[in-house]
Write a structure and sequence with these properties.
Blueprint: H1 2-18, E1 21-24, H2 33-44, E2 50-54, E3 60-64, H3 67-76, E4 81-83, H4 85-96, E5 103-107, E6 113-116, H5 127-135, E7 140-142, H6 144-148, E8 157-160, H7 173-176, H8 180-195, H9 201-217, E9 221-225, H10 227-237, H11 246-249, H12 257-260, H13 290-293, E10 301-304, H14 313-318, E11 325-327, E12 336-337, E13 346-351, E14 356-364, E15 367-372, H15 398-408
Parallel strand pairs: 6-7, 6-8, 8-9, 9-15
Antiparallel strand pairs: 1-3, 1-4, 2-3, 2-5, 10-11, 10-13, 12-14, 13-14, 14-15
Length: 419
């Protein structure tokens, strides 16, 4: 009996010595894709590197074996495989082959994350804060005061909340102007504008937008969803132009505002037309509206582009998924008309039949930006005041995976360019 136990102990010891790596598969075998990102982020906080295996089993993660890591994977319900050093070497050899559209990207530093969101409660939730919380990835909340007092450079990644950077309070005046939350929001914005010496909220929001642009130019990673994406560009294009009617800023809008717009100032969009109706729940024609799209919940899907992992690693990272067809979802800004997207913008996801793009990327200075249309990837028609989505019901959501790709993207070590 003692001899048998001794042999078993030696076998287990030998197996443990060979079981040097943990592979987190991100294909359809994974039971919880979203928490897998959180585990990988957590591993980086332990001063350990991880490999992001682009296009290998859905964009899998590989890192050194530790008993504590395995325990955490079990606690969080993430599927994993314990593999030997030889197996890990074989995987790396496979993804590095020139005839395979795969690559291994080193992740070596957990990015410090900021979410631009008001401190006061609003009657809608934000997909990014929902998935960060679910994945157990830490973040700080910043808003206008933090941006205007130059706090952004301490962060690697910034998400723009469901926001209106034009100073029109979301253009929900017609429906919600008598609601306590709307009145409080307007009051808070006006107080902050006055505190920083601005006569109008629109002027303060423009200053915020320009600070965010400086952040990008200096190497920051910007991510925006829903109305934050198009109103960001609209605000940049309307610098020095009054596009707000009197119910928003106390005086009429400039009747010549449209022809004065400067599209050269924008990140993503050009040649768009403003919505001049202050009662319309729309900012411009950038957004492909419901009646224009010809789609409904049963047939609304968008397709991710396939990028070269070796030659286009950035869009390849941002599009890692276990499927290339993603369920569509609505928002104040649902999707972007393709004809209004600048030619140098990288289109990563589109719905061809609606002539729209859903997921786009570009560079500015030393940094990057990514815009993602829609409000909540797992709630097709999310209404104001509804309960937040319970991601325990959607642990393998491909739409939410796109958000988390952006979270880990800043952790990637830049490869030296071949000369």
């Amino acid at each position: 009996m003692k001899k048998t136990l001794a042999i078993l102990f030696l076998v287990l010891l030998s197996w443990g010595a060979q079981a040097n790596y943990i592979l987190i598969p991100m294909d359809k075998s994974q039971k919880n894709h979203l928490k897998a990102y959180g585990i990988t982020y957590w591993v980086l906080t332990k001063n350990l590197e991880a490999d992001w295996l682009l296009n290998y089993r859905g964009g899998s993660f590989l890192f050194k074996y530790r008993q504590a890591f395995q325990n955490e994977l079990i606690v969080r319900g993430v599927s994993y495989e314990v593999i030997s050093d030889a197996s890990a070497h074989q995987i790396r050899a496979e993804v590095s082959r020139v005839d395979r559209n795969m690559d291994a990207v080193k992740l070596d530093k957990p990015p410090k994350i900021a979410v631009y969101s008001p401190k006061f409660k609003q009657p809608w939730d934000d997909a990014v804060t929902l998935v960060l919380t679910y994945a157990e990835i830490p973040y700080d909340v910043v808003f206008d005061e933090e941006v205007l007092t130059n706090k952004l450079p301490k962060y690697d990644w910034l998400h723009l909340h469901h926001e209106d950077f034009t100073g029109q309070y979301g253009k929900v005046y017609r429906i919600f102007r008598h609601k306590p939350w709307y009145i409080k929001q307007k009051q808070k914005f006006e107080e902050t504008a006055k505190k920083f010496g601005y006569k109008k909220v629109s002027q303060m929001k423009l200053a915020v937008v320009k600070k965010i642009r400086e952040y990008c130019a200096g190497g920051g990673f910007l991510f925006a969803m829903c109305s934050a994406a198009d109103t960001y560009d609209i605000a940049l294009s309307a610098e020095g132009i009054d596009i707000c009617e009197s119910m928003y800023d106390g005086d009429p809008a400039d009747p010549s505002a449209q022809r004065k717009l400067s599209y050269k100032n924008t990140f993503a969009f050009q040649n768009f037309q403003l919505s001049r109706n202050p009662f319309e729940y729309e900012y411009s024609n950038i957004d492909n509206q419901y009646f224009e799209r010809g789609l409904n919940e049963s047939n609304d899907f968008f397709t991710l582009f396939k990028f070269s992992a070796k030659w286009d690693p950035i869009p390849a990272m941002l599009t890692q998924n276990h499927t290339n067809v993603i369920k569509g979802f609505l928002g104040q800004t649902t999707a972007f008309k393709r004809r209004l997207v600048k030619p140098d913008v990288i289109i990563m996801g589109e719905t061809k039949q609606a002539k729209e793009v859903r997921y786009i990327h570009g560079t500015y200075g030393k940094g990057t930006w990514t815009f993602y249309g829609g409000h909540d990837p797992e709630d097709y028609r999310h209404q104001t005041g509804e309960e937040p989505t319970d991601l325990n019901l959607h642990p393998t959501s491909p739409g939410y995976r796109l958000i988390l790709n952006n979270i880990l993207f800043p952790a990637a070590r830049k490869k030296k360019q071949k000369t």
